User: Which sequence fits this backbone?
């Protein structure tokens, strides 16, 4: 690698508090080489550079775009087959074609129709939790709510949802290549069977709609359907679960912000600032330079990978004054919590809806909620993509 000072890796402190590492990087070396995802990548941390990079056509999602044209067709994919066919790993025109097939299912208007069901589900889950003992809010609420919602949207049977949650954690967190391949294969095998079952007996869920679109001539292969379903299941609950977990931690210690949950008209602005402040997806998935590219004054050579840190960008003081302060009254326009450009998160409206409902329902029912763990003792997921504790022990009712 050429250009800026290289760093062997972030220290262990990064996994506990990535925003501190990002702040130092922005101030001292905003484009630097680090060890992420098992290899070297250029980490980009300033807002202007990140936002520009998110729409830079020279930064491809598929690493094979860096190869000479005659070698691209025969080059092996860099990920297990289903994952290499996900939207997050594709460039136009393949990306354009596949995204068009699912965009209509995730419009803000379409997602708004889910509000009654999400509200009902949130109340059901909270009603099952004891108030007088410690419960893990991650396992009992933060993961379950979005997993059930996305599973119902896709048409995945309830009996399989817990296993999907387990497998997606493996696919999101750092793990050995063989474990990644095994989890990907397990999820793909199940979804292949589910696609066959839906084709034989269609329902009104999204997976059947994708199959129908393919059968009607949109040329969506079974592998592409499986990859789409895998991505939606993973992204459809992981981001929201992380957001709910971290937002609860933030609001427990902020009386003024928490009070806004009792005023429905103020909840959307609170959630939007929480999205900026927490950035559920800390770093965008890898991009690859298809030619020599200059980012922030650093030359990145063709073929090298780039990690655009949306979490770092959202706390850049050049874009947001006093960025480490949670301020629901600030102008958060332009934040990149959901990315930017053609790869902007499809499920942004769904994350907002679930976040608003989950936080309002939780603190309305349990205003005395407290976290039953020393923050320093929480164990965090070891993931480049998300930052959240693996468990969040809470007490919902007042202490005796």
Assistant:
């Amino acid at each position: 690698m050429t250009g800026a000072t290289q760093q062997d890796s972030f220290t262990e402190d990064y996994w506990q508090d990535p925003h501190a590492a990002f702040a130092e990087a922005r101030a001292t070396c905003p484009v630097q080489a680090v060890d992420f995802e098992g290899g070297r990548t250029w980490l980009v941390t300033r807002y202007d550079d990140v936002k520009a990079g998110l729409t830079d056509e020279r930064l491809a999602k598929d690493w094979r775009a860096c190869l000479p044209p005659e070698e691209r067709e025969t080059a092996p994919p860099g990920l297990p087959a289903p994952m290499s066919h996900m939207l997050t790993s594709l460039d136009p025109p393949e990306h354009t074609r596949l995204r068009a097939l699912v965009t209509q299912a995730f419009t803000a208007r379409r997602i708004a129709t889910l509000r009654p069901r999400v509200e009902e589900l949130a109340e059901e889950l909270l009603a099952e939790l004891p108030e007088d003992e410690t419960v893990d809010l991650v396992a009992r609420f933060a993961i379950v709510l979005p997993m059930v919602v996305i599973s119902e949207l896709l048409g995945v049977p309830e009996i399989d949802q817990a296993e999907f949650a387990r497998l997606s954690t493996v696919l999101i967190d750092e793990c050995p290549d063989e474990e990644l391949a095994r989890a990907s294969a397990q999820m793909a095998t199940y979804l292949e069977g589910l696609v066959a079952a839906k084709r034989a007996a269609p329902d009104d869920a999204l997976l059947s709609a994708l199959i129908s679109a393919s059968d009607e001539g949109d040329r969506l292969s079974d592998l592409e359907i499986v990859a789409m379903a895998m991505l939606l299941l993973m992204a459809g609950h992981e981001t929201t679960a992380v957001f709910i977990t971290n937002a609860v931690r933030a609001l427990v210690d902020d009386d003024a912000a928490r009070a806004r949950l009792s005023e429905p008209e103020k909840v959307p602005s609170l959630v939007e600032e929480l999205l900026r402040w927490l950035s559920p997806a800390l770093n965008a998935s890898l991009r690859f330079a298809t030619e020599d590219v200059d980012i922030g004054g650093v030359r990145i050579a063709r073929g090298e990978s780039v990690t655009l840190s949306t979490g770092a960008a959202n706390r850049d003081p050049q874009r947001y004054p006093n960025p480490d302060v949670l301020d629901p009254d600030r102008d958060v326009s332009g934040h990149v919590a959901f990315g930017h450009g053609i790869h902007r998160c499809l499920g942004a409206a769904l994350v907002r809806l679930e976040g608003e409902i989950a936080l309002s329902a939780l603190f309305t029912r349990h205003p005395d909620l407290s976290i039953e763990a020393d923050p320093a003792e929480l164990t965090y997921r070891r993931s480049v993509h998300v930052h959240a504790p693996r468990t969040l022990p809470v007490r919902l009712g007042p202490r005796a």
In short: The chain has a mean pLDDT of 87. DSSP finds 18 helices and ten strands in the chain. The two ends are 59 Å apart (CA to CA). The CA atoms of residues 199 and 292 lie 46 Å apart.
